[in-house]
Design goal:
The chain is mainly α and 246 residues long. 57% of the residues lie in helices and 7% in strands. A 3-stranded antiparallel sheet has the order 1-3-2.
Length: 246
Amino acid sequence: MQHFYNSELGQILALDPNQTYASIPVVCAMLEIPHAPQLKRIKAHATLATGLRQLSVPNLDGEDERQPCLRIDLIPLWVAGLDPKSVSAEAAPIVQALSSEMASVLWQSFRPQGFETNDQLLPNRWEQTQAEVAYRGALAVANLTREQMLLERQLSADVEAREMGGMSAEIEANAVLLARTVRRVAQVVGERSRRNEYPAIFDGLYRQWGITTYRRMPQARLSEALAWLERWYGDALGEPEPMPDI
């Protein structure tokens, strides 16, 4: 969240980069909003509530006092949900920018395959500048990397493929198959090249198939993607043999 961490909002909230928790009453005072309703809102939010703790921290007078605190990585999610009209005049435009940027990033991460929209951060593909095209590609690679990371945890724990977020069992099984193949290629080829091969693989998947998640790989093109990965594996090892099973 670039607007949050690299702009004056961090200064407005008096946050230290080394902090792991921030006092809710102190942050609310900085934003000029009452903290009791916000504390209630945080407790009622399933994700925000996981980062809520009672800790001894300095109050506005600099004296240590036990206060409700929120884990620092959840501050952007909390702040983005605020009504810009309800906060201080100084913070209002930054809260609005944070909310808009988060909405755009989430949309670019989870939009349906091939669906375009003229959101604030990224215009339609045919209207994008070179910088915007580069950003979109980098975001896609980051999404694929995150999905690979999560699926590898699932595979390592021997969790069988299952429906996630309403996806069909077939789509989920295909996503796991792609993750297995990507992991095998990256590990074996990486041992030979002494490099981290994941970035190049993700970049190739995005460039050739335009996917930002394995679950968007068209069923009709799944075998094509697997064959591409197999060629990568064989070329790197000097062997045209099929990849061994994981």
